[in-house]
């Protein structure tokens, strides 16, 4: 079975909320598939964004690349609307000045029920490339 990056606009994913936006680095850059583009925030904390998949998907792995993130909290919803989010994953990240934070979260260790979502929300920090 071919693995698909479900968090791409070309796969139907959409950023439906972002608490911050920069004209040169908008939230949609997170899901465009281009490793040269990214979302940057205004520097205020916490920051949050929601990615909508427009269908239920099974998530096996999340890759987060960021700068200056202390704590990453990921919530998920199986609702058809962006409501009823439940806390899913929370991680404290190590920050080294000037270094990109690369965090890979293997979801396949969770139960199948825990892997299903139609929306995921990310809270805290400046995030790059999903």
The parts where pLDDT drops under 50 for at least 5 residues are 124-130
CATH C-level category: Mainly Beta
Global shape:
globular
Strands, count: 8
Integer average pLDDT: 80
Describe the model.
The strands form two sheets. This protein has a five-stranded antiparallel beta sheet with strand order 1-2-7-4-5. A three-stranded antiparallel beta sheet has the order 6-3-8, with no helix packed on it. Helices cover 3% and strands 42% of the residues. It contains one helix and eight strands, in the order ββββββαββ. By secondary structure, the chain is mostly beta strands. Mean pLDDT is 80; it is low at 124-130. It has one helix spanning 112-115, and strands spanning 14-18, 48-58, 61-67, 71-77, 86-92, 101-106, 116-123, 126-128. Belongs to the IFT25 family. It is found in: Cell projection, Cilium. Pfam families: F5_F8_type_C (PF00754).
Question: Could you give a short description of this structure?
Answer:
By secondary structure, the protein is mainly beta. The protein has one helix at residues 112-115, and strands spanning 14-18, 48-58, 61-67, 71-77, 86-92, 101-106, 116-123, 126-128.
Brief descriptors of the model:
single chain, 130 residues, mainly beta, Jelly Rolls, 5-stranded antiparallel β-sheet, 3-stranded antiparallel β-sheet, 1 helix, disordered C terminus, metal ion binding, Intraflagellar transport protein 25 homolog
């Amino acid at each position: 079975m071919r693995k698909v990056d479900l968090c791409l606009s070309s796969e139907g994913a959409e950023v439906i909320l972002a608490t911050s936006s920069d004209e040169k680095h908008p939230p949609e850059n997170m899901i465009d598939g281009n490793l040269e583009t990214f979302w940057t925030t205004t520097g205020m904390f916490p920051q949050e964004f929601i990615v909508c998949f427009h269908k239920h998907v099974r998530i096996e792995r999340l890759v987060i690349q960021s700068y200056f993130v202390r704590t990453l909290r990921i919530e998920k919803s199986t609702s058809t609307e962006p409501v009823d989010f439940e806390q899913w994953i929370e991680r404290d990240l190590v920050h080294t000045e000037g270094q990109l934070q690369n965090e890979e979260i293997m979801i396949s260790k969770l139960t199948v029920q825990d892997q299903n979502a139609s929306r995921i929300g990310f809270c805290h920090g400046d995030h790059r490339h999903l």
